[in-house]
Amino acid sequence: MAVLALAEHRRGTLRDPSFEVLTPARELADALDTDLHVVVAGGPVETFAEELNREGVDVIHTVDHGEEFNQDVAVQAVEALAADRAYEHVLVPNSVNGLGTAPAIAERLDRPLATDAVAVAADDGLVVTREFYGGKTAGEVAISGPESVVTVRPGEWPAASGTGEAEVVEADVEIDESRVKATVTGFQEVGAGDVDITEAEVLVSVGRGIEEEENLVLVEALADALGATVSASRPIVDNEWLPKDRQVGQSGKVVTPDVYLAIGISGAVQHVAGMKGSDTIVAINTDPSAPIYDIADYGVEGDLFEVVPALIEEFGGEVPDV
Amino acid sequence: MKVLVTVSEVASVDDEFEIDGLGVDERYLTYDLNEWDDYAVEEAVQLREAADDDVEVVTVTIGPERSEETIRQALAKGADRAVRVWDDALETASVLDPVTKARVLAAVVADEEPDLVLTGVQTGDDSFGATGVALASAVDFGWGAVVNHLDYAVGDEVATVHRELEGGVEELAAVDLPAVLTIQTGINEPRYASLRGIRQAQSKPLDARGLVDLGLSTESLPLGLELTGLHVPEVESDVELFDGDPEAAAGQLADLLREKGVEA
Fold it and tell me: Domains in chain A: how many in total?
């Protein structure tokens, strides 16, 4: 019996969620009075093992195979470890790599999978709290049986700290190359344009609420009047109304301006991950239940097509016709 | 070549809503084609349009009869035919876990023998973001998750994909076929259904199947999750709202912005 956490990495560096996942994993191990094991596959595993040796980690299994995090290798590593020892729960970061791995682990091991947990409780069985309907509701999900795979939301738990006394073990895992069906061939930074939104002191950020591409002139006029830079949430970039280097969020840029003005942005968790470090957050949104108001310091619950023109006029700008 | 696209009908919740038991009160729900699946359907249809050989695009849905209207949307956009799987056992589950959905879809894959399966990265309601990868494992296919660019010509044995990672970085990966790719929004520009397409969709085959038809039984499915509570998340919001008509609110907001040193 033990809890197993999977660490993930990219280009020679362990990613933050790999240290965060150790925290709920240790809590769970405490609740079950058992050990916490960590597995890391690929990359400089010896260095990784040293870094993962945080307080509360009992054993670190290393699988020296390839340079990058490979989903098929990670799945095989966990599968082999689980065959050797009864890991009741496997915890994985709910990152892109985590979501590319955990579902296959659950399927291979034939256990229930709950993703994107924001709370994990071990009571009469494992109960995971997760959001539904884009964060408008949260539900408790009970996992049947004694075993599970759970992915945990990045940024929800603090990274494990301190130095542990973990035993580092080279895992006795034979990777079956015939079952490695995807390989990482490279990486690419997206959208190196002429504007760097991470440098801006004031961002006027626009979301789905703007409705039509033609209406973007409104936020551009506001940005002009405020001496601000225009950024956007995902749907605007998906529609190619603005280039990718303007996207704020988990898959875009992380910004920390003095003032972040969110216009017609609902505030999905992926977006918030990219702007929560802003000094002052202002939201203009008609929906009072929009999650953006959970993080905003100031807000106007109104129609952006009325509020934005009024604000442009306040700053002596020209209001375009939309 | 055959491309199978998983298509879900999802519910979105109105701005104001009430919770009724373990769900959102039906009155506040609007059903539509899952946004991510719209991109997956488009990607499949574009593959067919670019190919010299015949490519059949088949959609598969786990959902009740109500979802047929949504499935017809995908047919109107160019899919050739549809399979819909539903069963009392699925109806009564409080939440369908990704492994259960993967096992059901795996039975359809075994039937249809596609070369490529496209799924949305996630659904807009449950947002597990896991069914595609679990399906790949269940049918022993290769997979690529969160794909926002696909280089594939019909007949190739390997698909070259870009996977959208965090922080404005994409991973380039080579995925052996047969494969499951989970498709991210923004990969293409989903078309609107033409009137002709909508008319044609009415006569395209839509095959409804139960678990038994697929050689499955309730007992064979894990159904490993149970929803035991649903609530509106408690927020620690300390937002200060500016009231009044738009001009008044904008005036107060302008004062605040000036105080913060904002000026052109």
Answer: 2
